[in-house]
Design brief:
Elements: E1 12-22, H1 24-34, H2 38-41, H3 43-48, H4 58-72, E2 79-81, E3 87-90, E4 98-111, E5 118-128, E6 134-145
Antiparallel strand pairs: 1-4, 2-6, 3-6, 4-5, 5-6
Length: 152
């Protein structure tokens, strides 16, 4: 398998990954352990909430996105990690049995000023359900080794 380096990340559409189905059982298990709010655990309480039905935690959705990114490209990238997330918006609820698709765009790719053997690749990720509804948008930088780090 080819290892992706900084030079492989040029601005523009990078890829589409998925689909990944999220089950009711996964939503309940994640919520029980990490985000036990009623709209994530209890059908009746969720129906009375502003979400109008059982929904996955936004943090669960972010975890699924991370897995989709790893399986899609980070797992074969010379990645050194990330300094964080620049932007994150949850726009619609994650529902049981949603089929998620992840579109990744390289928003920016620049050589690091402090570590020129690496580059900073800023990706914008958009997650949609099967109906095309955007559930989440995230902008995050990745630190990636350059192909010829010795030349830096």
């Amino acid at each position: 398998m080819t290892t992706l380096t900084f030079e492989d990340f040029t601005p523009g559409h990078f890829g589409r990954f998925g689909p990944r189905r999220v089950t009711r059982e996964e939503i309940l298990a994640f919520a029980a352990e990490f985000d036990p709010q009623p709209m994530h655990l209890d059908e009746e309480a969720a129906q009375r909430s502003m979400l109008k039905g059982l929904s996955g935690s936004g943090w669960h959705l972010c975890s699924v996105v991370m897995r989709m990114m790893f399986d899609g490209f980070i797992g074969r990238t010379a990645s050194l990690g990330s300094p964080g997330v620049n932007e994150l918006r949850w726009l619609a609820p994650l529902r049981p049995d949603d089929e998620l698709t992840l579109d990744v765009e390289v928003a920016e790719a620049r050589v690091s000023k402090s570590r020129p053997e690496t580059g900073i690749v800023t990706v914008k990720s958009v997650v949609r359900n099967a109906a095309g509804q955007v559930l989440c948008e995230m902008v995050s930088p990745l630190i990636v080794k350059r192909r010829d780090a010795g030349a830096a």
